[in-house]
Amino acid sequence: LSDRLTSTFKNLRSKGRLSEADIDATIREIRRALLDADVAVPVVRDFTASVRERCLSAEVSGALNPAQQVVKVVNDELVSILGGETRTLRFAKQGPTVIMLAGLQGAGKTTLAGKLALDLRTKGHTPLLVAADLQRPNAVTQLGVVAERAGVPVFAPHPGNQGAETDDVVGDPVAVAREGVAAAATREHDVVIIDTAGRLGIDALLMQQAADIRAAVDPDEVLFVIDAMIGQDAVNTAQAFLDGVDFTGVVLSKLDGDARGGAALSVARVTGRPIMFASTGEKLTDFEVFHPDRMASRILDMGDVLSLIEQAERAFDAAEAEKMAAKVASGQDFTLADFLVQMQQMKKMGSMKKMLGMLPGMGQMREALDNFDEREVDRIEAIIRSMTPAERENPRIINGSRRARIAKGSGVRTTDVNQLLERFAGAQKMMRQMNKGGGMPGGMPGMG
Ligand code: GDP
Ligand code: MG
Question: Does the domain made of 97-290 have the CATH classification 2.40.50.100?
Fold first, then answer.
């Protein structure tokens, strides 16, 4: 017998990989979530393939069930593509730090110029805004308004002409950008933010203009601003700006909308450039450092995946699982004390019922938890505490009179004691069946 148990134990241990069926089932759900979030189709294909690869070689942690394991790999991969640690602005060692903004019209560049200026000003910097969008009537005025709200000065081709909008502002945006940077140096501004023109679609001339501005002022950062609602177009747009202008970082705007943020993943994956900031509204204070982990959760739309996993790890004490496995391996029988430990684990899991339901492939477990009454655990505990050590070791000796005594001692009915002993016998049987190589069903024997 002991031999067979030892080989079962080995079996369990060498099962330390996720099965392809487990992985594929969960990945199907992930694929759907990504497509729903408007991640570009080729990116989804690429991403799921690499996640699958990683799952196949992943070490299995005893604390998580297969679906959670896959979700953890997916989440880790998402966070790593989205940037892991967020990168902050690089400041010039000498002279003013030059930050150039690029992106389609309406992406949120001008608004971002104000947000960045305000943020930098509150951090003790002295930013100057430069109006190098001379394409759209009103663009200079708009930057002027934004600058005033941010409490910073603006360098414009026609200072003082605000409100006098007629046709396109005449002038050379490259020259304005160059003069703006020079003015910043003499007026001792430590940061210059250059707002540029964009078109509704990708436009070769405008792209060239942005490239020329870049060449003229040699910015420390070129921030590509992209509307999070852009969806599937994100990849083409980002690629065009990468090829046409090149950029050092990405700002995702309009994250206050319903967009699930698939654009973030598409852009990060295709360009390899870090997403640095998030724009979350029209007010200048609606601006924050980009959080890859939050974005990963938003893209997956499965609640806070990370905290779920942490909770699962806590609830399913890995050490407890190890002890149980060792016990099975050593040929000892599963006792009422073990049963009680399992019930207590279940109780902890109960509090995360709602979150579990949000995970793919967790429907079954959720059902089991739905049928699980937490007060039941307290009752079971009371009953087991009223047993003598000998009875706990070997419940077969618990005859009628012992049952009556235990019931009285724990304040329950004799039928409750009977029920517990039946459930325990069932759990014990299930533990023995593990010998036949089934492994712990859902990691939780004794359920239901
Ligand atoms: P630009 O053409 O790239 O300079 O874009 P603008 O800064 O002019 O922004 C275009 C529109 O989007 C304006 O109406 C802004 O108020 C709005 N906008 C910009 N950023 C955000 C944002 O993060 N959230 C929301 N809801 N609106 C924004
Ligand atoms: Mg603008």
Answer: no
